[in-house]
């Protein structure tokens, strides 16, 4: 057996709960190649919590929610950052660490929230509500961030809104995140009509059915879910907050109202917790595969660039968020 084959083989123990043995051989060649390419190219892989377990647990160097990936992107010392996630995450990494080569394995890995708003929409909102600060979710293009005062993620949205110390803010573009934050603060929030195509599909009826089918199940929801869903959940928080909740409370049985890979990735760490699996796939996150991560490292593609006319202003909005 070659050394490289044994590298992938030793990783299987980590993911055996979530990857059936019959599927594993399909991954080993790419895993070995990616591990070698990372060393050759002095590259690191940043992977979002929605990446599949063979990416998240077997080739990623840094994993987390959007906030953690942004923070960690800033301090990466390697020459190349491969962003295993969606395009706005790769843009954020490039904004925060502009001297590095940032590549995304599939340029069309987008986001329905990012697609829901343009820079000129933000300018119109500013004209319509003069003087009201604009808080923009990181799930947006750099051009949209550049028109904003400050960014937020699902992990810090409440703290960001309250840090501004004003009676009213505009929060773009996720209507449900805005409403879920509005329910926790006295600050008046003006929302946009963008939605996450994954989380908008969950309904309160789903939660009731789950509670009936699995008595005692703990329900965790992402704040991109509609407010009626969050109201019926036991806890709502970012992908990292949901993962922490499982670690801290160790519920006997849990359901994560979010993207499918999240349960797999958290389940690997908590063999004693039973994960109930109704979930929705994010087609954008699922564009990233071991195959195109390998190609990204072999061919140095697809390099993420940011229009210089927006980069400085977009960076300021993200850096203001990270300073809070
Ligand atoms: P988190 O910041 O909670 O990881 O969410 C990112 C995302 O795209 C959720 O759909
Ligand atoms: Fe965008 Fe929703 Fe996919 Fe997250 S899960 S990347 S918000 S479409």
Could you describe the 3D structure shown?
The protein is α/β, with parallel strands linked by helices. The chain has three domains: about 10-110 and about 285-300, Rossmann fold, CATH 3.40.50; about 110-195, Rossmann fold, CATH 3.40.50; about 200-275, Rossmann fold (3-Layer(aba) Sandwich). Helix content is about 45%, strand content about 15%. It contains 15 helices and twelve strands. A four-stranded parallel β-sheet has the order 2-1-3-4, with helices on both faces. Strands 6-5-7-8 form a four-stranded parallel β-sheet, with helices on both faces. A four-stranded parallel β-sheet has the order 10-9-11-12, with helices on both faces. Strand 7 (about 170), helix 9 (about 175-180) and strand 8 form a beta-alpha-beta unit. Helix 2 packs parallel to helix 14. The protein is globular and about 60 Å long. The model has no long low-confidence stretch (mean pLDDT about 95).
